[in-house]
Design goal:
This protein is of the alpha/beta class. It is built from nine helices and eight strands. Strand 4 and strand 5 form a beta hairpin.
Length: 219
């Protein structure tokens, strides 16, 4: 059983996907974290982010693994090293679109995402930008989570501060607005709601309320 959760940055999809997977006993696949990890490696290796061939070669020689730790959190391993914190910096966030826009890179990542999900024992919950439209268009259930830009910026600011990363709320809001436009106009992996996806506005909802809504549709 595959459950797809899509939506823009900081809409709550990661939090809900994690909780949902835990509640159902499914595997949680954070596709956004996978792209972030590849972006981090490209930056570290000083790969030209506009060189498609170089980026495709990079993803083919890179190992990205997701592992649930003792604290029930999903940790991201890049070439066997835990980079769960490093991939959440503003620098990575601002460069991820370069990686995500490359058709060859997305093709390789989709293969990996499908392989991970299909290998799950009971089922999998995947979240990202194009899970319900591209990666798993035949998913058992599809959800599209959204929220106001102001609320999403506040959430991202809180996340960064809690992780000890200095942040500016006004700048984060601008960055999210810019990223929304990029994601909505990509040639591949475009951010959009699948025609059969269930829309949930999380702006004024608590995490338990959103989770209950999602579970009600699955049950």
């Amino acid at each position: 059983m595959i459950i797809a959760i899509d939506g823009p940055a900081a809409s709550g999809k990661s939090t809900i996907a994690k909780l949902l997977a835990g509640r159902l006993g499914f595997l949680y696949v954070d596709t956004g974290a996978m792209y972030r990890a590849l972006t981090l490696k490209a930056m570290r290796d000083k790969v030209d982010l506009n060189d498609e061939a170089a980026l495709v070669a990079l993803v083919r020689r890179t190992s990205i693994r997701l592992e649930v730790g003792a604290d029930k959190k999903t940790n991201v391993f890049l070439d066997a090293k835990d980079v769960s914190a490093e991939i959440r910096t503003p620098e990575v966030t601002n460069n991820i679109s370069y990686i995500a826009d490359v058709p060859g890179v997305r093709s390789e990542m989709v293969k990996l995402q499908r392989s991970i999900a299909y290998s799950a024992r009971n089922g999998a919950v995947l979240e990202g930008r194009d899970i319900g439209t591209v990666v798993f268009p035949d998913a058992f259930r599809k959800f599209y989570l959204d929220a106001s830009i102001q609320e999403r910026a506040r959430r991202r600011y809180k996340e960064l501060v809690e992780n000890g990363i200095k942040a500016d709320l006004a700048q984060i809001e601008k960055d999210i607005e810019t990223r929304d436009k990029r994601d909505a106009t990509r040639k591949v992996g475009t951010l959009k709601k699948a025609s059969d996806a269930i829309l949930i506005d999380t702006t004024d909802l608590t995490i338990p309320q959103v989770l209950d809504k999602v579970l009600s549709y699955i049950k």
